[in-house]
């Protein structure tokens, strides 16, 4: 009799228990795969934003190296650079760019601010997804600015310039752009 009791306690796992365990493990693995997918998407977005930050800073440094091209008043006529031009050799009065990536010199280094601007745009098109598309190019802006998102226009006496870059992101990933798949990075700097 004692042997029958010990056998009844030692029955093992039933098939239903094994199936429930497999379902739970499968759900856990699927959750990890979804998390990995989102992680990759967020990493790509971070890489593109980081590239945009570097590209915006590169353009500002090109402009700082050629300040005379962008200021209406400059030394020695005035003690310092003041009065950013509303349009220049790189940008129009509405902030649109006058640059063309195809005009970047293929032989030798760029010799002036316009050639450097063309090469900067070529780099931008290589580093940010779909930034060469016309819909994205229309979102690229450079202009004197005293408030975010607005060009100052003629008569601006300050030295702040705004750079706005755009690229195509994953659908739903861009909360700051005009469309859910167009990402925008905007910064302002002093020349």
Summarize the structure.
The protein has one domain.
Map the helices and strands.
Blueprint: H1 2-9, H2 15-65, E1 71-73, E2 82-84, H3 113-127, H4 134-137, E3 141-144, E4 160-168, E5 182-190
Antiparallel strand pairs: 1-2, 3-4, 4-5
Helix pairs in contact: 2-3
Q: What is the ordering of alpha helices and beta strands?
A: HHEEHHEEE
**Regions with little confidence, pLDDT below 50 for 5+ residues:** none
Number of helices: 4
Q: What's the mean pLDDT score?
A: 88
Strand content: 5-15%
Structural class: alpha+beta
Question: Could you describe the largest sheet, including whether it forms a barrel?
Answer: 3 strands, antiparallel
**Spatial strand sequence of the major β-sheet:** 3-4-5
Provide the helix percentage: 40-55%
**Tally of distinct domains:** 1
| Shape descriptor | elongated
Q: What is the subunit arrangement here? A: single chain
Task: Give the tally of β-strands.
Answer: 5
Q: What is the radius of gyration computed over CA atoms, rounded to a whole number of angstroms? A: 28 Å
Distance between the termini: 96 Å
């Amino acid at each position: 009799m004692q042997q029958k009791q010990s056998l009844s306690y030692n029955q093992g796992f039933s098939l239903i228990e094994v199936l429930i365990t497999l379902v739970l493990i499968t759900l856990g693995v699927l959750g990890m795969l979804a998390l990995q997918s989102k992680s990759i998407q967020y990493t790509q977005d971070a890489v593109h934003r980081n590239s945009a930050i570097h590209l915006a800073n590169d353009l500002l440094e090109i402009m700082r190296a050629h300040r005379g091209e962008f200021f209406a008043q400059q030394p020695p006529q005035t003690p310092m650079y003041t009065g950013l031009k509303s349009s220049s050799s790189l940008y129009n009065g509405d902030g649109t760019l006058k640059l063309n990536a195809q005009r970047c010199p293929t032989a030798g280094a760029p010799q002036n601010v316009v050639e450097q601007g063309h090469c900067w745009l070529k780099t931008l098109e290589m580093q940010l997804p779909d930034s060469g598309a016309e819909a994205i190019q229309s979102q690229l802006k450079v202009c004197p600015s005293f408030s975010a998102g607005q060009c100052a226009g003629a008569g601006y006496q300050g030295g702040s310039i705004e750079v706005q870059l755009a690229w195509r992101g994953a659908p739903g990933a861009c909360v700051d752009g005009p469309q859910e798949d167009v990402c925008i990075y905007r910064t302002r700097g002093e020349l």
